[in-house]
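Re: [ENG-882] Designed sequences occasionally contain unexpected residues at chain ends

Forwarding the minimal case from QA. Structure tokens:
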């Protein structure tokens, strides 16, 4: 079956070439750019990709827009800092030669502080990215967006091979992004009526550390693994602390009425 690879970008000129090289087996590569100023658009076109501009809609809506513009029904959704490994490429080609499912997931291997993490929170990081768009769509979540399948899609199949995630961003940039993500997550949770108890604020980082560093053996990834898990624990604390702040602010406003 013909395949469209869809990639959303913003100032991704440094990461995009390796991504495009890894998907040269696709029938179409579509790049949806939200206003790059670093030559991303020109680079993508020079390498044969079809480029569409779309102002930023949010993670889920932006990816869904890209899916809807694709030329083919089978779509593989990537970020510019991701690369399809040779093993995963072979699995995708074989799956599309005789599709046995409407959607496929595979492991994503995250590079952090110069090391590809193979344990803890960083792996296998299962990602559903290959699907027939008539049976799935991206959620509208402001953060941690995901592909939602309709009931007729059936079971999700698993492919061999890794999607390599190589953001190569600094710790400072990573923390800035995580601060934004925890704010969005806290706002979304509060809007959905969820509440953060004092117990959750205190215990969530500890529970997360035990789960990912001990049970899922994050310690085997050395110092990068420890730092990755530690930041994840702080993110959990920050999200619930921000939810608590939202609750207190809402209570104070209610008391003034």
């Amino acid at each position: 079956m013909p395949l469209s690879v869809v990639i959303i970008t913003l100032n991704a000129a440094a990461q995009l070439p390796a991504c495009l090289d890894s998907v040269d087996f696709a029938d179409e590569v579509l790049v949806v750019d939200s206003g790059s100023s670093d030559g991303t658009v020109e680079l993508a076109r020079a390498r044969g990709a079809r480029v569409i501009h779309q102002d930023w809609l949010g993670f889920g809506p932006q990816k869904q827009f890209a899916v809807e513009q694709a030329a083919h029904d089978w779509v593989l959704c990537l970020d510019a800092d991701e690369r399809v490994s040779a093993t995963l490429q072979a699995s995708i080609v074989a799956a599309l030669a005789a599709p046995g499912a409407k959607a496929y997931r595979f492991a994503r291997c995250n590079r952090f502080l110069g090391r590809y993490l193979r344990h803890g929170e960083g792996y296998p990081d299962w990602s559903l990215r290959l699907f027939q768009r008539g049976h799935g769509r991206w959620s509208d979540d402001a953060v941690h967006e995901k592909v939602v399948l309709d009931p007729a899609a059936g079971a999700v199949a698993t492919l061999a091979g890794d999607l390599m995630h190589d953001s190569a961003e600094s710790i400072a940039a990573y923390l800035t992004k995580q601060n934004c993500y925890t704010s969005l997550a806290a706002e979304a949770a509060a809007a959905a009526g969820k509440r953060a108890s004092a117990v959750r604020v205190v215990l969530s980082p500890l529970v997360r550390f035990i789960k990912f560093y001990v049970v899922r053996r994050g310690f085997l990834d050395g110092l990068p693994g420890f730092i990755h898990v530690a930041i994840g624990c702080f993110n959990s604390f920050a999200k619930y602390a921000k939810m608590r702040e939202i609750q207190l602010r809402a209570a104070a406003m209610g008391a003034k009425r």
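QA comment: On inspection the terminal residues look reasonable. The mean pLDDT is 94. Proposing we downgrade this to a documentation issue.
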